[in-house]
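Q: Could you write out the predicted structure for this multi-component system? I'm mainly interested in how the pieces pack against one another.
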Amino acid sequence: MLKLYNNLSRQKEEFTPIEPGKVGMYVCGMTVYDYCHVGHARVLVVFDMITRYLRHSGYAVNYVRNITDIDDKIIKRANENGEPMQALTDRFIAAMHEDSAALGVLPPDQEPRATTSMDLILNMIQTLIDKGYAYAANNGDVYYDVSKFEGYGKLSGKKLEDLRAGERVAVDESKDDPLDFVLWKAAKAGEPYWESPWGHGRPGWHIECSAMSTHCLGHSFDIHGGGLDLQFPHHENEIAQSEGATGCKFVNYWIHNGFVQINEEKMSKSLGNFFTLREVLKSYAPEVMRYFILASHYRSPLNYSDQNLDSAKSALERFYTALRDVNAAATDGAGDYETRFRTAMDDDFNTAEAMAILFELANALNKAKADNNAEQAAQLAGQLRYLGGVLGLLQDDADSFLKGGAGDDGDAEIDALVAQRNQAKKDKQWAEADRIRDELQARGIVLEDGAGGTRWRRA
RNA sequence: GGCUGGGUGGCAGAGUGGCUAUGCAGCGGAUUGCAAAUCCGUGGACCUCGGUUCGACUCCGGGCCCAGCCUCCA
């Protein structure tokens, strides 16, 4: 029985889909004007893990993750670069897809874009105006009238009066209320625009998600996710828009992942303390990043540091060392370990605890190998690979993972040196054997003499 | 100021009203020509002050501290 933490109620709830056996899930994706950083990687990986686990649990998941390809920052960046907006967004969409694939993130089932959903957006704005939730201002903007929506603030636990008391929003003359938010922005000279009943303009940020999610998944759907920073105002506004327009309950379960932090501080564009994924992947295998993200609970803060990534790397090495030299048996995963794995995952996707079970499996596998129990080892390896796969981990060839890394020496040369050393060992020339081993060590190669011969890996 | 979430061993990170998390690092042993890997064993923790309880790190209340949202942000 899957339980998940619902941000709407601020407690764990049993998950019951609207349609038995099916899950509709929408996640707010990237605004494509720059490369993904580690914070973006977390959203991608976390919701990929959730999708994979839901599928493992037997649900047919319709996973929708949008792309925001029109907004102020995109316009600004395109102008700075002196390139057409679409050239910019195409480039960063491609980059984002590359980054996702590297992390083992499966493509979403649908990936709608704001610029190709303009009729949906315009329709929804019109509906909101018709129903009295929105008004066209004299400057060409269209605003959502927050006071008209009962329950505004229910997701983030905010009250209108509190928001007004803590007023920090620059007062905009054309709004009836400073808390009203924009649905349609009138185009200034030189800005890209679309035709609308209210003149040339572009959509506000929040409306695209309401329009695209309800279009792809229906007026009501099961799960809506995104980073914690989207809870307010973005998701709050989505609720106001969608429920205002459709009159239906928008989403049953809201899921938000925690931040990636650096030195106890949120990693973010505005603070400038971010690392792009591509930078990090120069030093670490993508699977190390994925493990690092999944080793802690998705709602906890995740502290980014080299030390923590090194630790993630060591953990993966332990798994792959156990898996090395074993032919994993085909399995449907069922068994005691799977039961416990599932219990952990059913508790609000507790990947940290699930990981502990995988380590137990690795331990049992190592023992079976030491006992020369090939059949049992094959079974355990199969289980480990299967359950790892549910998390999108441990699918690589063990030896290539362990030999991968930053080394620039050719494998053939290393093999030759290993052979030389083995000859020296056979001749009991220990000094020579150790000299070669030290030489390889200095190049970041670690040797392991085992029953089946000498193996090496990159440290 | 309002509203969230959190404070666990050297580090990372789960969890539980009384019983081993787990990984990395440390220590002892096995194994090894010596190592590495592996196995076995082992030390070490629950911010603080009260309350509930036979018993609380775990539940309740106060305090202190941290992060986040209230402005674009995954």
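A: Regarding packing and overall arrangement: Residues 411-458 of chain A form one domain.
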